């Protein structure tokens, strides 16, 4: 029977699907530097939180599949995996609605001053209602930086609340955006400057890492809020901290940070104009069940020698290892 390392336990339906099909090792650690000896002994690696780099991949000739229960692969050296004939299984198109809902939830919480109001009410400060910090969505502009499945779903939900939508995405045609009655903006800075909310929906790539920095944050309206349910390293976190502390922007709703698990001493946690959640946007019961079952199914299929379609490196099947399959 094949053996896999599972960085952290999956939601119960995923664990049930693994039972009886593979032996499972769960170190509660996904850092390939720290669990390398275990990785050397196994056939597969399902990585929830952590990373696997070239050094680990080259040290694990037995490894036949790496799986990410999601779509992000910035913590996997995909090129090294491909060079060694290892498919990197992903689970696309299952989390877009959950992440869009979470994005909207952060926006609503910020717009209604929800956290401060709830906390002050618990203290007996009923007069917090007279701060008049809450505002309505109707007529406000949402700028979307990225217009994939998640960005499109956020736009659809926010249109129902009578928001105006501005889209920046260099990979989407103007006519496709305008055909949906949204505004298209080809210039990043101008797009940012229009938003009462600016919501990031771009993957972490060499081109996007650090793309939101001091210059971009200075283009925000001082009354605008920044939302990030994408990837933490797309943002220069020090620049964001400075912008929030100096009130260059009004606040932020963040589901991701540069370092995860998130450190409690991060200055962002001390700010009352910031809401932070623990990278949980896609962690609804429904989406998580679909995701873990897809992850398990793909992992087992590759271990059986099947060319699973949902991989981020389909060219891997040209590798000599697969020509013998």
Automatic annotation (TrEMBL):
Residue span(s) of domain D-isomer specific 2-hydroxyacid dehydrogenase catalytic: 5-312
Residue span(s) of domain D-isomer specific 2-hydroxyacid dehydrogenase NAD-binding: 104-281
InterPro entries hit by this protein: D-2-hydroxyacid_DH (IPR050857), D-isomer_2_OHA_DH_cat_dom (IPR006139), D-isomer_DH_CS (IPR029753), D-isomer_DH_NAD-bd (IPR006140), NAD(P)-bd_dom_sf (IPR036291)
Pfam families linked to this entry: 2-Hacid_dh, 2-Hacid_dh_C
This protein's UniProt keywords: NAD, Oxidoreductase
GO terms, molecular function: NAD binding; oxidoreductase activity, acting on the CH-OH group of donors, NAD or NADP as acceptor
Signal peptide start and end residues: none
Assigned protein family: Belongs to the D-isomer specific 2-hydroxyacid dehydrogenase family.
Name the record gives this protein: D-isomer specific 2-hydroxyacid dehydrogenase NAD-binding protein
Organism: Coriobacterium glomerans (strain ATCC 49209 / DSM 20642 / JCM 10262 / PW2)
